[in-house]
């Protein structure tokens, strides 16, 4: 009798509250981020815009033991941890591709934390303005895929710059630009042995040319140091041996 009465009570209770039942709203349609493949892999459309964005980066951890290549002093164990973030935004305009890029680096070496802006520039139709590696370095694809390229000082540091690249077709490109410079230069004057580049008002002009073909490529660049009043030039020859191996040779001159 108890079970029957309980069942009846539940049934009657359900009928009493039927009018007060809450109707669940229809689920909203899922809105996925659209893939943007017009500028390469990894891009997606920023919601509500026609701008494509690519977010990337890397993590790095390494350790150095023994003598420092910079000072020759035995530093023992020097651990390094690094996190790098890259943001690359591209959109089409009536003047060509509008490209914005920035790269940030967070690093800890021997417990000392640093934050470094690696690059921050805007490109439009061949023009570039902003902060990045010197064109004297990147125009020749640096020194290849190596971990540490600063033991031998073969290139200026990162700098503010403006430049224009003209693509003539058939793999031929021409470069003209001006750079602020960074760091310091030697004066050979004892009372003031070095002078920072950012104390000067005149930019440093750079010009370059390159050709890229199936067999490889040839690249040249020249720059004039407006403060030190010297000229420097570099040339690089690339040869593709097969689908797996390629070699290059690079040389430079400084007045």
From TrEMBL:
Q: Name one Pfam family in it.
A: Porin_2
For this UniProt record, the keywords arranged alphabetically read as follows:
Cell outer membrane, Ion transport, Membrane, Porin, Signal, Transmembrane, Transmembrane beta strand, Transport
Q: How does it sit in the membrane?
A: Multi-pass membrane protein
Q: Where in the cell is it found?
A: Cell outer membrane
> Quick one: signal sequence residues?
1-18
Molecular function GO terms recorded: porin activity
Q: Among its keywords, does the record have tRNA processing?
A: no
User: What GO terms fall under cellular component here?
Assistant: cell outer membrane; pore complex
One GO process term, biological-process aspect: monoatomic ion transport
Which InterPro entries does the record associate with it? Porin_alphabac
Q: Which family does it belong to?
A: Belongs to the alphaproteobacteria porin family.
Q: What is known of its domains?
A: Consists of 16-stranded beta-barrel sheets, with large surface-exposed loops, that form a transmembrane pore at the center of each barrel. The pore is partially ocluded by a peptide loop that folds into the pore lumen.
What is known about what this protein does?
Forms passive diffusion pores that allow small molecular weight hydrophilic materials across the outer membrane.
The name this protein carries in UniProt is: Porin
């Amino acid at each position: 009798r108890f079970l029957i009465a309980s069942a009846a009570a539940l049934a009657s209770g359900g009928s009493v509250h039927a009018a007060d039942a809450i109707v669940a709203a229809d689920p909203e349609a899922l809105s996925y981020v659209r893939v943007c493949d017009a500028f390469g892999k990894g891009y997606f459309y920023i919601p509500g815009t026609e701008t494509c964005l690519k977010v990337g980066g890397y993590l790095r951890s390494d350790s150095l033991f023994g003598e420092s290549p910079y000072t020759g002093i035995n530093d023992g164990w020097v651990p390094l941890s690094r996190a790098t973030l890259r943001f690359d935004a591209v959109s089409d305009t009536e003047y060509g591709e509008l490209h914005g890029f920035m790269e940030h680096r967070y690093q800890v070496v021997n417990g000392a934390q640093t934050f470094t802006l690696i690059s921050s520039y805007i490109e439009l139709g061949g023009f570039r303005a902003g902060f990045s590696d010197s064109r004297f370095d990147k125009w020749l694809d640096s020194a290849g895929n190596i971990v540490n390229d600063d033991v031998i000082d073969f290139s200026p540091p990162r700098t503010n710059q403006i430049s224009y690249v003209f693509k003539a077709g058939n793999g031929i490109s021409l470069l003209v630009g001006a750079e602020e410079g960074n760091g310091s230069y030697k004066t050979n004057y004892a009372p003031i042995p070095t002078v920072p580049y950012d104390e000067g008002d005149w930019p440093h002009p750079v010009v370059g040319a390159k050709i890229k073909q199936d067999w490889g490529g040839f690249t040249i660049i020249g720059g004039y140091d407006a403060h030190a009043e010297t000229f420097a030039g570099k040339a690089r020859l690339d040869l593709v041996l097969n689908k797996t191996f390629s070699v290059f040779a690079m040389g430079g001159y400084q007045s």
